[in-house]
Amino acid sequence: MFLKRAGIWPFLALAIVLGFAALLARRADLPPSYHHFADQRIWLGIPHFGDVVSNIAFLFAGLWGWAFLSRKSSLAQFIDARERWPYFLMFLGLVLTAFGSAYYHLAPDNARLVWDRLPMTIVFMPLVAALIAERVNVKLGLRLLPVLTAVGIGSVIQWHFSAEHGAGDLRFYVAVQVYAVLALFAALLLPARYTRGSDLLVVASLYVLAKICETADHQIFSAGHFLSGHTLKHLSAGTAGFWILKMLQKRQLLADH
Questions:
Q1: CA-CA distance, 8 to 148, in Å (whole number)?
Q2: What is the pTM (predicted TM-score) of this model?
Q3: Residue 166 has pLDDT above 90, yes or no
Q4: Running DSSP on this structure, what letter comes out for residue 226?
């Protein structure tokens, strides 16, 4: 276990290592086939129906999270009421992801993909700020909330402008995604104030599962032509949002705090 006063170092070390890795990695952009998803079916007049409608998982998770945090009773789940603010932003990010991803999947292309990925960073990075607030220091977590969120948004904007100029560069956006996942594991190295820390492992596992489903989009769809891998990606990632909500609802303050 790291001493609490040094608790920011795992998060900082990850940022430094991944930042340098991104700089040293070869520039890479989306493959030409990226927007050609497996499930092209139209149903009820909605193109790419499965990939569009499955975004309802993000919408429900985000709205349910906001409803929970807005209740006075939710204050009992936080030592400091300010700890709720990163989660408010994270659940807002889930709602925005539902609309941004649905908009993208109606007619997938690079221009629309920006509106899919921007809100996703408003999920990843506020969650990291929440972990810092809970495991290191509340004031530090809140100070880093706008910084981390801006870094996430900036990685999408940087990719967009590089792609617009014919030299798409995904390195920093990928680094942000990897950082957010590894931060979940880094948090587990630090003293916890609440129970249910193992839920972070479930959230990380669901995200990894989502990425596997995304990669195996066509293979999964060809197995039975029922659900595509990308549709399952949305459902898995949406479940991760519900799992975070479940963690907040059920956790308790540890006895030594």
A1: 14
A2: 0.94
A3: no
A4: S
